[in-house]
Amino acid sequence: MRKIRTVEMVRLSVDDFKKADKMPLIVVLDDVRSMHNVGSVFRTGDAFRIEAVYICGISAVPPSAEIHKTALGAEDSVRWVYFNNACEAVGKLHEDGYEVYSVEQVEHSTKLQHFSPMKGKRYAVVMGNEVKGVHQEVVDMSDGCLEIPQLGTKHSMNVSVTAGIIMYKFAECLMLTGDNC
């Protein structure tokens, strides 16, 4: 097998990306303190062509050299909106008709392998702070909580890795296959 060169890959320009149909998913960052994690969410969000990133609280916003370091320009293609806090963002999402899921370990969470997003619905997922997770008030406002099963000794994963797994699940069900999961 031969690796494909970058010039052979058909990629959208930033302008074409902005005009293209998006996966009906918004990623909400609830006090994500690492600019590298914020940038990584942008980059993965671009790869899956999500609608937007909602940046809340202490999370850094573009333009930022540290965000750009991992986003590699995706902060210019993926739409983003800043909110003072994630409760404000979730309230707006509910007003706009989104189902909102916090990604958190809670009682009665839905394990990711048992979750099937449905075509025709619009979704948002809330990703929490690297130490404290999603604020309890945001969990309380959510329509549900998704949890990624973990088999090792740790009880958490890096927020940008988690966001990538969650975005892939939505893309698999809504964009990459002909049917819902």
Automatic annotation (TrEMBL):
Keywords: Methyltransferase, Transferase
Record flagged with keyword Transferase: yes
GO molecular function: methyltransferase activity
Record domain tRNA/rRNA methyltransferase SpoU type: where: 25-168
InterPro entries linked to this entry: Alpha/beta_knot_MTases, rRNA_MeTrfase_TrmH, SpoU_MeTrfase, tRNA_m1G_MTases_N
Signal peptide: none
GO biological process, one term: methylation
Any one Pfam family match given in the protein's UniProt record, by short name: SpoU_methylase
PANTHER family: 23S RRNA (GUANOSINE-2'-O-)-METHYLTRANSFERASE RLMB
Protein name: RNA methyltransferase
Organism: Xylanibacter muris
